[in-house]
Specification:
The complex is a heterodimer of chains A (153) and B (277).
Chain A: E1 2-7, E2 10-15, H1 22-29, E3 48-51, E4 54-57, E5 70-72, H2 74-77, H3 81-92, H4 102-115, H5 121-127, H6 138-152
Parallel strand pairs in A: 1-5
Antiparallel strand pairs in A: 1-2, 3-4, 3-5
Helix pairs in contact in A: 3-4, 3-6
Chain B: E1 3-4, H1 9-17, E2 23-25, H2 31-36, E3 45-47, E4 57-60, E5 63-67, H3 72-77, H4 79-84, H5 86-91, H6 98-103, H7 106-112, H8 119-125, E6 129-133, E7 138-142, E8 147-149, E9 152-153, E10 160-167, E11 175-181, E12 192-201, E13 204-213, E14 220-221, H9 223-229, H10 239-249, H11 260-276
Parallel strand pairs in B: 1-3, 2-3
Antiparallel strand pairs in B: 4-5, 5-10, 6-7, 6-10, 8-9, 11-12, 12-13, 13-14
Helix pairs in contact in B: 9-10
Classes of the chains: A alpha+beta (153), B alpha+beta (277).
Chain lengths: 153, 277
């Protein structure tokens, strides 16, 4: 089935099984390897991307869910001004350890800073609550998002 | 396996009227996990997320109508819901995670019918009705009458839930309660969930509705407990009698998330907390 959508601001069309997982479409058909598969059940957030501006777990979405929509991945967002600012904040607070969960945390953090941006630890914790870090570096991750909120405001 | 994307709602009714077994795909948060772990094999899938008639929140006279493919995120952020049914707004804050709230739909949570489905106890105490339609029929069923067993319900194969109907007026001047007990705040599958609404006049409980999740083969109302406490003041309630009624109405099991004794005690404590509020 032909499916068209916008991927990192570019219009794309692919011929694909509509039930193929969106995560696999991104990784296999577009070679975008930023989003990762962790649990494969929507619980860990390593596969997070933006769909029409909202963070979603791409491992439990299908290719058909992208049809006519706008998908943004870590590859696209990291090139934006705000994306770069957030990466700098993660860098400065040493918030990334093994890095596997980072693309997911990055997307959720970007969405929070962009749509809310209040330097409020509880709100940040809630916004990132769908992402899991098994190196358990949450404290530094929260610090980096707090720093990002401070810098944009 | 077949995949069908109906061109409009009539085409959807037509399609399911002619099929033997199919799965409707909306948010996909449950079905994709079931496909992955092999619970569902080689399914016929009918995609319904693009059908505008099935999503959105609107007011109609004294009711709020929620389209079945409306996402939890849209429900949580809805001004209409916040204003008229604040219990839904507050109770769903810890539903799954912010990421899943964006995709998961209210109709999917009901139709999938998990014993732990978060939204069902809440809708049960609000006396919600479901609008169920097929090509030729159109009926309304109270949610309390919808389930018939573990993941079983009254719908025929050619029917689907189109709307969830909740009265705006019922809950004025009622106290509301919702507690979900899980291992963590986010992404928890409930060990026990208790929802309630009650009206107290001159210290007497004049009306009460209680519902529980994760304690039976599907979430259900506690009619016996409700009946026992109605018309009584707090001091007139004998909690041993509440326990007796409760034992007839819940059948907690032990599984990987918790054991039955724990579930039973937490349920008793939550009901006591609500009655004492």
């Amino acid at each position: 089935m032909k499916i068209s959508f916008t991927l990192n601001k570019q219009k794309v069309t692919i011929d694909v099984d509509p039930m193929k997982r969106l995560l696999d479409v991104l990784r296999e058909d577009f070679n975008l390897l930023g989003a990762k598969e962790g649990c494969g059940e929507g619980e860990c957030g390593a596969c997070t991307v933006l769909l029409d501006g909202k963070p979603v777990t791409s491992c439990i979405l299908n290719a058909i869910h992208a049809e006519g929509k706008e998908i943004e991945t870590v590859e696209g967002i990291s090139k934006t001004k705000l994306g770069k600012l957030i990466i700098d904040c993660f860098d400065e607070t040493n918030a990334v350890q093994c890095g596997f969960c980072f693309p997911g945390f990055f997307i959720s953090s970007y969405h929070y800073v962009k749509t809310d941006g209040e330097k409020d630890l509880n709100k940040i914790k809630k916004a990132l609550s769908g992402n899991i870090c098994r190196c358990t570096g949450y404290k530094k991750i929260f610090e980096s998002v707090m720093l990002a909120c401070e810098r944009v405001n | 396996m077949k995949f069908i994307k109906p061109k409009d709602i009539n085409n959807l009714y037509e399609t399911i009227d002619n099929m033997d077994q199919q799965y409707l795909l909306a948010g996909g948060t449950d079905i994709n996990v079931q496909i992955k772990n092999g619970t569902i094999r080689d399914p016929n899938i009918i995609y319904i997320s693009h059908l505008k008639e099935l999503s959105g929140i609107e007011e109609e006279n004294d009711s709020i109508l929620i389209g079945s493919t409306t996402s939890f995120k849209d429900i949580i952020e809805s001004r209409i819901i916040k204003k008229h049914i604040p219990l839904i707004h507050s109770s769903l804050q810890n539903f799954a995670s912010p990421l899943i709230q964006t995709s998961a739909t209210i109709g999917g949570n009901i139709a999938n019918g998990s014993p732990t489905a978060d939204v069902i106890p809440i809708l049960l105490v609000l006396d919600a009705k479901l609008k169920i339609c097929s090509k030729a029929t159109n009926r309304e069923v109270f949610l309390k009458d919808f389930f018939t067993g573990y993941k079983k319900n009254v719908m025929k194969n050619n029917e689907l839930i189109t709307k969830i109907i909740i009265s705006k007026n019922v809950r004025h001047k009622y106290q509301t309660f919702y507690q979900k007990v899980g291992s963590r705040n986010s992404l928890a599958i409930a060990k026990v969930a208790v929802a309630g609404v009650k009206k107290v006049t001159k210290e007497k409980i004049t009306d009460i509705k209680l519902a529980v999740g994760s304690l039976n083969e599907y979430p259900r109302r506690l009619f016996k407990v409700e009946k026992y406490v109605t018309g009584k003041t707090l001091t007139e309630i004998d909690f041993n009698k509440v326990d007796e009624s409760l034992q007839q109405e819940i059948t907690p099991i032990s599984d990987l998330r918790s054991d039955k004794e724990y579930r039973y005690h937490v349920c008793v404590n939550l009901i006591r907390t609500f009655l004492n509020e």
